[in-house]
Design a protein that fits this description.
Elements: H1 12-25, H2 34-45, E1 48-54, E2 63-68, E3 71-77, H3 82-97, H4 110-113, H5 119-127, H6 133-158, H7 165-178
Helix pairs in contact: 1-6, 3-6
Protein name: IrrE N-terminal-like domain-containing protein
Length: about 180
C-alpha cells in the first residue's frame, strides 16, 4: 500500500498529512523504533520488510530498496552512525510508501560481490539509473516528517514540564494547529 499514487503529492502539506496519518494508523509512538515501524508497515502491506546492514562502496548510495519475491529489501550503509542508518532506512521507506518503482535488470557478476544478498535485489539496485529529483525529494520528506514527528512526540511525552494530563492537552493543541493527527 502506497500513501501516494506514485505520481506524487499535490503539495508538501498533503505529503506531511499523509505520512502522519500512516504513522497514526500503524499506532507508532515515541520513541521511534525504525524496526518496529518496518514490522508494522510490512504487516499492513502484507509484505515483509527486511533490513540488511551492508558495507556499501563509498562514494555511492547509502541505501537501496528493492522488491524481490514478495519481500521488500532495504540495504543500508553498515559503516555509519546509528542515527544516519535510521535516516537511510526512513529514506528508503519513503520510496516504498510513495509508490516509487524499484529498478529492473542486472548482471550476475554482482552475486560474487554481494553473496549474502538475493541476486535479483542486487541487479535491480545497482542498475537503477536513479530516481527523478522529485522522487528523491518525496523520499527525503517522508524521512524528515517521520523524524520530526518522533522528536516532537517524544518531547511532549517525556518532557519534565509537560507530564500527565498537561502533556495530553498540549499534544492535542499542538496536533490540531500543526496538522499532526
Amino acid at each position: 500500500m502506497a500513501i501516494s499514487s506514485g505520481r506524487g503529492w499535490r503539495n508538501e502539506f498533503q505529503l506531511r498529512r499523509s505520512v502522519r496519518r500512516l504513522l497514526r494508523d500503524l499506532d507508532i509512538d515515541a520513541p521511534l523504533d525504525v524496526r518496529e515501524l518496518c514490522d508494522r508497515l510490512g504487516r499492513q502491506r502484507q509484505r515483509e520488510i527486511k533490513l540488511v546492514p551492508y558495507q556499501l562502496p563509498v562514494p555511492g548510495p547509502f541505501g537501496m530498496w528493492s522488491d524481490v519475491g514478495g519481500t521488500d529489501w532495504i540495504l543500508y550503509q553498515r559503516d555509519t552512525t546509528p542515527g544516519h542508518q535510521e535516516h537511510i532506512i526512513l529514506h528508503e521507506i519513503g520510496h516504498l510508501i510513495s509508490g516509487h518503482d524499484s529498478a529492473e535488470t542486472g548482471d550476475d557478476i554482482w552475486a560474487q560481490i554481494f553473496p549474502d544478498i538475493p541476486l535479483e535485489m542486487v541487479r535491480r539496485a545497482l542498475r537503477r539509473d536513479g530516481y527523478e529529483p522529485h522522487h528523491e525529494w518525496e523520499a527525503e520528506m517522508v524521512a524528515t516528517v517521520i523524524k520530526d514527528w518522533a522528536r516532537l512526540v517524544d518531547r511532549l511525552q517525556h518532557g519534565s514540564d509537560h507530564a500527565g494530563p498537561t502533556a495530553k492537552r498540549l499534544r492535542g493543541a499542538f496536533d490540531d494547529h500543526q496538522g499532526w493527527l
